[in-house]
Protein backbone atom coordinates (compact mmCIF):
# COMPACT_ATOMS: atom_id res chain seq x y z
CA UNK A 1 0.00 0.00 0.00
CA UNK A 2 1.45 3.37 -1.02
CA UNK A 3 0.67 6.63 0.76
CA UNK A 4 0.71 10.23 -0.39
CA UNK A 5 0.27 13.26 1.85
CA UNK A 6 -1.97 16.08 0.68
CA UNK A 7 -2.42 19.29 2.64
CA UNK A 8 -6.04 20.40 2.65
CA UNK A 9 -7.86 23.54 3.80
CA UNK A 10 -7.27 24.75 7.37
CA UNK A 11 -4.00 22.83 7.64
CA UNK A 12 -5.66 19.43 7.64
CA UNK A 13 -3.46 16.60 6.49
CA UNK A 14 -5.04 13.71 4.64
CA UNK A 15 -3.46 10.53 3.43
CA UNK A 16 -4.63 9.11 0.17
CA UNK A 17 -3.72 5.56 -0.51
CA UNK A 18 -3.67 3.01 -3.24
CA UNK A 19 -6.36 0.50 -2.39
CA UNK A 20 -7.13 -2.33 -4.74
CA UNK A 21 -5.03 -0.59 -7.39
CA UNK A 22 -7.22 2.54 -7.40
CA UNK A 23 -5.58 5.80 -6.37
CA UNK A 24 -7.65 8.77 -5.37
CA UNK A 25 -7.11 11.83 -7.49
CA UNK A 26 -6.29 15.24 -6.05
CA UNK A 27 -9.81 16.21 -7.16
CA UNK A 28 -11.32 13.45 -4.96
CA UNK A 29 -9.34 14.72 -1.98
CA UNK A 30 -10.18 18.38 -2.65
CA UNK A 31 -13.92 17.55 -2.84
CA UNK A 32 -13.70 16.55 0.83
CA UNK A 33 -11.83 19.72 1.83
CA UNK A 34 -13.37 21.91 4.51
CA UNK A 35 -14.98 25.03 3.05
CA UNK A 36 -16.96 26.20 6.08
CA UNK A 37 -17.79 25.41 9.68
CA UNK A 38 -21.06 25.72 11.59
CA UNK A 39 -20.84 25.15 15.36
CA UNK A 40 -18.17 22.48 15.10
CA UNK A 41 -19.63 20.78 12.01
CA UNK A 42 -17.47 21.07 8.92
CA UNK A 43 -18.88 21.33 5.40
CA UNK A 44 -17.37 20.99 1.94
CA UNK A 45 -17.93 23.56 -0.83
CA UNK A 46 -21.24 21.87 -1.73
CA UNK A 47 -22.55 22.01 1.84
CA UNK A 48 -22.05 18.28 2.53
CA UNK A 49 -20.67 17.25 5.92
CA UNK A 50 -16.95 16.54 5.93
CA UNK A 51 -14.16 15.81 8.37
CA UNK A 52 -11.50 18.02 9.92
CA UNK A 53 -8.44 16.14 11.11
CA UNK A 54 -5.58 18.17 12.54
CA UNK A 55 -1.90 17.47 11.89
CA UNK A 56 -1.56 16.02 15.42
CA UNK A 57 -4.31 13.46 14.69
CA UNK A 58 -7.11 15.24 16.53
CA UNK A 59 -10.40 14.54 14.76
CA UNK A 60 -13.46 16.74 14.86
CA UNK A 61 -16.35 15.58 17.06
CA UNK A 62 -18.45 14.30 14.15
CA UNK A 63 -15.66 12.06 12.83
CA UNK A 64 -15.16 10.62 16.31
CA UNK A 65 -18.89 10.17 16.85
CA UNK A 66 -19.16 8.56 13.41
CA UNK A 67 -16.43 6.08 14.33
CA UNK A 68 -18.34 5.15 17.49
CA UNK A 69 -21.73 4.93 15.78
CA UNK A 70 -20.36 2.99 12.81
CA UNK A 71 -18.77 0.44 15.15
CA UNK A 72 -21.98 0.25 17.18
CA UNK A 73 -24.37 -0.53 14.33
CA UNK A 74 -22.64 -0.92 10.95
CA UNK A 75 -19.43 -2.90 11.41
CA UNK A 76 -21.25 -6.16 12.08
CA UNK A 77 -22.05 -6.39 8.37
CA UNK A 78 -19.63 -3.94 6.75
CA UNK A 79 -16.53 -4.91 8.71
CA UNK A 80 -14.34 -2.88 11.04
CA UNK A 81 -13.34 0.58 9.79
CA UNK A 82 -15.50 0.24 6.68
CA UNK A 83 -13.28 -2.40 5.04
CA UNK A 84 -16.17 -4.72 4.15
CA UNK A 85 -16.91 -8.38 4.75
CA UNK A 86 -17.86 -11.47 2.81
CA UNK A 87 -21.51 -10.37 2.71
CA UNK A 88 -21.48 -6.55 2.77
CA UNK A 89 -19.43 -4.05 0.77
CA UNK A 90 -16.53 -1.96 2.00
CA UNK A 91 -18.18 1.37 2.75
CA UNK A 92 -14.83 3.15 2.76
CA UNK A 93 -14.64 2.16 -0.93
CA UNK A 94 -18.34 2.81 -1.65
CA UNK A 95 -18.08 6.42 -0.50
CA UNK A 96 -15.60 7.04 -3.31
CA UNK A 97 -18.51 6.48 -5.74
CA UNK A 98 -21.68 7.63 -3.99
CA UNK A 99 -22.66 11.11 -2.92
CA UNK A 100 -24.15 12.32 0.34
CA UNK A 101 -27.85 12.20 -0.71
CA UNK A 102 -27.40 8.66 -2.06
CA UNK A 103 -25.76 7.55 1.19
CA UNK A 104 -28.64 9.01 3.22
CA UNK A 105 -31.21 7.34 1.00
CA UNK A 106 -29.59 3.90 1.13
CA UNK A 107 -29.21 3.93 4.90
CA UNK A 108 -32.70 5.30 5.57
CA UNK A 109 -34.61 3.23 2.98
CA UNK A 110 -32.40 0.18 2.53
CA UNK A 111 -31.44 -1.43 -0.75
CA UNK A 112 -31.52 -4.80 -2.45
CA UNK A 113 -28.98 -5.89 -5.07
CA UNK A 114 -29.37 -9.11 -6.99
CA UNK A 115 -26.77 -10.24 -9.46
CA UNK A 116 -24.44 -13.08 -10.31
CA UNK A 117 -26.54 -15.52 -8.32
CA UNK A 118 -26.03 -13.48 -5.16
CA UNK A 119 -28.50 -11.32 -3.25
CA UNK A 120 -27.34 -8.46 -1.00
CA UNK A 121 -29.83 -6.71 1.21
CA UNK A 122 -29.18 -3.54 3.14
CA UNK A 123 -31.95 -3.17 5.70
CA UNK A 124 -33.61 0.22 6.20
CA UNK A 125 -32.39 2.12 9.26
CA UNK A 126 -34.71 5.13 8.90
CA UNK A 127 -36.65 4.08 12.02
CA UNK A 128 -33.55 3.32 14.13
CA UNK A 129 -32.68 6.51 16.01
CA UNK A 130 -29.29 5.09 17.01
CA UNK A 131 -28.40 5.22 13.31
CA UNK A 132 -30.75 7.83 11.85
CA UNK A 133 -29.86 10.56 14.37
CA UNK A 134 -26.17 10.07 13.59
CA UNK A 135 -26.20 9.64 9.81
CA UNK A 136 -24.05 12.73 9.26
CA UNK A 137 -21.52 11.48 11.80
CA UNK A 138 -21.31 8.06 10.16
CA UNK A 139 -21.00 9.68 6.73
CA UNK A 140 -18.21 11.99 7.91
CA UNK A 141 -16.27 9.08 9.43
CA UNK A 142 -16.63 6.94 6.31
CA UNK A 143 -15.75 9.89 4.08
CA UNK A 144 -12.52 10.35 6.05
CA UNK A 145 -11.81 6.63 5.64
CA UNK A 146 -12.63 6.80 1.91
CA UNK A 147 -9.96 9.42 1.21
CA UNK A 148 -7.47 7.86 3.61
CA UNK A 149 -7.56 10.76 6.08
CA UNK A 150 -8.59 8.57 9.02
CA UNK A 151 -6.50 5.49 9.72
CA UNK A 152 -8.00 2.26 10.93
CA UNK A 153 -8.87 2.06 14.60
CA UNK A 154 -10.18 4.45 17.20
CA UNK A 155 -9.08 8.05 16.63
CA UNK A 156 -6.42 8.86 19.23
CA UNK A 157 -7.64 12.42 19.93
CA UNK A 158 -10.97 14.16 19.49
CA UNK A 159 -12.38 17.65 19.68
CA UNK A 160 -14.97 18.40 22.32
CA UNK A 161 -18.62 17.85 21.50
CA UNK A 162 -20.01 21.13 20.18
CA UNK A 163 -23.24 22.58 21.55
CA UNK A 164 -24.90 22.13 18.15
CA UNK A 165 -24.28 18.38 18.32
CA UNK A 166 -25.68 18.25 21.85
CA UNK A 167 -28.79 20.18 20.84
CA UNK A 168 -29.42 18.10 17.71
CA UNK A 169 -28.93 14.84 19.61
CA UNK A 170 -31.43 15.89 22.29
CA UNK A 171 -33.94 16.94 19.63
CA UNK A 172 -33.55 13.83 17.46
CA UNK A 173 -33.48 11.29 20.28
CA UNK A 174 -36.55 12.91 21.87
CA UNK A 175 -34.87 13.78 25.14
Automatic annotation (TrEMBL):
Keywords: Heme, Iron, Metal-binding, Signal. Residues 1-25 form the signal peptide. GO terms for molecular function: electron transfer activity; heme binding; metal ion binding. Residues 150-175 are annotated as: Disordered. It comes from the Bacteria. Pfam families: Cytochrome_CBB3 (PF13442). Residues 42-146 form the Cytochrome c domain. The keyword Lipid metabolism does not apply. The keyword Metal-binding applies. Residues 157-169 have a biased composition (Basic and acidic residues). This is Methanol metabolism-related c-type cytochrome. It comes from Neorhizobium alkalisoli.
Amino acid sequence: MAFRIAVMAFGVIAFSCLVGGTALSDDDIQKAAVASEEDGKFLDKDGNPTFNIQADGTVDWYTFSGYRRYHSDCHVCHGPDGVGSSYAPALAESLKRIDYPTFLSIVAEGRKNVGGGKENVMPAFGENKNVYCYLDDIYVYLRARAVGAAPRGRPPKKADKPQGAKDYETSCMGG
